[in-house]
Amino acid sequence: MPRFRRGFDVDEAHDWLSRRDRRLGSWMKRLGPVAAPPGWTRSFDPVDALARAILFQQLSGKAASTIVGRVEAAIGSTRLHADTLARIDDPGLRTCGVSGNKALALRDLARREAAGEIPDLRRMSVMPHDAIIDALVPIRGIGRWTVEMMLMFRLGRPDILPIDDLGVRKGAQRVDKAEAMPTPKELAARGEKWGPFRTYASLYLWRIADFTESPKASTNRSQD
Hints:
The protein has 224 residues and is an all-alpha fold. It has helices spanning 10-20, 22-31, 46-56, 61-75, 82-85, 90-96, 100-114, 121-124, 129-136, 144-153, 166-176, 184-191, 198-210, 215-222.
């Protein structure tokens, strides 16, 4: 059974994409190399990461961090798992600022962990990314995008293209100088050209979507 290592060679990905797609390649040259995400080399606990993803949904980072800190204090642990979450009841979660829907999602995650339905890191290392998505999206409060972010920034899988992400779609629009953002279906088709390094292409598409010309640079070009 093949094992999937965490991360991939970003230099190889850069060279491949630069040759494969001239339009994207010109942007890559303009923006410079994108380093490997630091999460690829950090310790990683899938259940804890999913619990935190649930708590961070639809909140600013500061507000979510405050709530997570309250939950950690209430359960006496920085590890969010079935056993530690069992130390607090739903009214206690609400006192920490956790909404009713998020409390239900945490309970569902804990139930599935206890039932052995959540693959650990060792199991994930031999699972194709589609199998990981299929295993995790049934969890209440966990959608495909959340799992894709885990695959990209934690597990370092090389061929993930989050077609529903607005930033990625906007970046693709700018690359192709299109009048409108591609639909998810159109982006999936467009992204076939970027395989097997669609993750690295996505990292660039986010940067391209956020790229803003400096007034000085624009003025200099207008005088050329």
